[in-house]
Amino acid sequence: MGDTIFEDYTIKSATTANAINLQVPLAPLQRALRSALSGSSASIRLTQKDNVPYLSLTIINNTFASRVPLVPTEENTSLPPEPNNQDDLLAEPGDFPADRQTTITQSIPVIVLPAESVSAIHEPHCRDPDVHIMLPPLLQLKSISDRFTKLALSTSTGTTSRRGGGGGGGGASGSQDLGAPASSFASSSSSRLVLAANMHGELRIGVTTAALKIESRWEGLVNPELDPDEVEGGEEGVSRHASTLMKDKEGDEAWAVVRVDGRDWGRVLGASATSTP
């Protein structure tokens, strides 16, 4: 990973693997990295202050003046010498009075994780997916998802308020836990988005409540082909894979459907903004 992210890096660790495992808060890291976009160069170091570990991000901004030297004045009547060759025309930063270098340092508090705790962290074991599909642009998908979630929450909250407004009977509240507010039920169930996809390049996202049913649909998306080298059993494993079998299905059976909390789904899609200038 170091070769992919950094031009040059040095790691000094007491562990046999020469690795340092860190727990980094994403929001401060994102803000710090965004501030480095306009910098000329940046470096990051693991430091410590008052026994608290920090990632120290140093950003250097170079502001260059116009490539024209000062003109003679009464105090300075001598002109610079004529360049003898092309190399003399290439001025270095600092050769002109208005050249300026600004250094900005941002510190991000982190937690150093012991090796034994990291060894227990691994990807969750999941069954083979029924469908694999390339999503549409994530910012577009997030915008639609957030809009659907807000609509679902607003309509379900209004419906719950009307149902709970009766003074007698209590029939509307008979199925809910009296120890929890009505809004908690609306937010926990009605904020769920329905995601559906098939192996024919189609994706649907929608929400259904007592007062609302809305859906967006994409067609012509890409269903990537599985790499036999990455599938257990090789070519035979690909032929028996759930996604391969889904290609032969039609109608409702061709769709894989999941329900997700709209707010959690929005946070996942929002992670794409980290890599967007």
Architecture blueprint of SSEs:
Elements: H1 2-5, E1 21-23, H2 26-35, E2 41-49, E3 52-63, E4 100-109, E5 111-113, H3 115-118, H4 138-163, H5 182-189, E6 192-197, E7 203-208, E8 213-218, H6 234-239, H7 242-246, E9 256-261, H8 262-270
Antiparallel strand pairs: 1-5, 2-3, 3-4, 6-7, 6-9, 7-8
Protein model, in words:
The protein is an alpha+beta fold and about 280 residues long. The protein has eight helices and nine strands. The strands form three sheets. The chain has a four-stranded antiparallel beta sheet. It has a three-stranded antiparallel beta sheet with strand order 2-3-4, with helices on one face. The model is unreliable at about 165-190 (pLDDT under 50).
